[in-house]
Design brief:
259 residues, 7-stranded parallel beta sheet, 8 helices, 7 strands, globular
């Protein structure tokens, strides 16, 4: 089914891997003009650009650091000038900070203020700066669409994830108010909450036998692949979607089955 993305100008932040890559390539298959940002992996972003082009879209690659507002402004200005506007923005870029997974303390009193500040500044403040920069172009679009990528950790939480969970939960409040502001100019604003997400059916950390046990614990008996998250994003940003506004869409496999 044609979703109406032919020649639509799209920006996907953090498009060099994972959900961002899957989403960018999915837009390419629909014939969209797709800009993607990268932080440090220019080669990976350029490889995704080739995938977008091969899929039938047009690609553009720009650098952006979610923790540095100046780079956000520069990236958006470059994309808007290159495409002559913007119709859809997917705020997918994320910063997990400098601590490795096993380095994070499990007790909140052992956390350090700079760790909190770094994560909040990038994932919440960074996305606020992004929205400020893209808002004028989305308002001019006539069918502007904005999707903020959150996480189910914003609701279920996890020890050691205070800053990341809080930053992502902040996006829910941001979207709740943006729907009134941007909505006045026809822009739809929604949030997608992935859970444990696979890429091409595998996970970069969790081994396959464990994945199968985890999947069996959800009511869908299935863990979503990055391509399925991309499908949800394209659905929300399609010009054919006109009445879904200010919503939190969970793409997680459903609820956990009680033990």
């Amino acid at each position: 089914m044609d979703l109406g993305f032919k020649d639509v100008a799209v920006l996907v932040t953090g498009g060099s891997s994972g959900i961002g890559r899957a989403t960018a390539v999915a837009y390419g298959r629909e014939g969209a003009r797709v800009a993607i940002t990268y932080n440090s992996r220019k080669d990976a972003a350029e490889a995704v650009a080739e995938e977008i082009e091969a899929a039938g879209g047009t690609a553009y690659v720009v650098p952006m650091d979610l923790g540095t507002p100046e780079t956000i402004a520069a990236a958006v200005a470059s994309v808007v000038e290159h495409w002559g506007g913007l119709d859809a923005v997917v705020a997918n870029a994320v910063s997990l900070g400098t601590l490795g997974y096993d380095e994070r303390p499990s007790k909140v009193e052992e956390s350090r203020p700079e760790w909190w500040t770094q994560i909040i500044r990038a994932n919440l403040e960074g996305n606020f700066h992004l929205v400020q920069q893209v808002a004028p172009a989305l308002r001019r679009s006539g069918h502007g669409r904005l999707v903020l990528l959150s996480t189910d950790l914003a609701e279920r939480g996890m020890a050691g994830s205070w800053a990341y969970s809080a930053a992502k939960a902040g996006l829910h409040g941001l979207a709740a108010s943006l729907q009134h502001d941007l909505g006045a100019d026809g822009v739809l604003v929604n949030v997608v909450l992935p859970g444990i997400t696979l890429e091409n059916g595998v996970h970069r950390v969790i081994p396959q036998p464990a994945l199968e046990r985890i999947a069996a614990g959800f009511t869908a008996r299935h863990l979503p692949d990055a391509a399925e998250i991309a499908d949800a994003i394209l659905f929300l940003t399609s010009p054919r979607t006109r009445a879904i506004q200010g919503q939190l869409l969970h793409v997680t496999g459903g609820d956990l089955i009680p033990a």
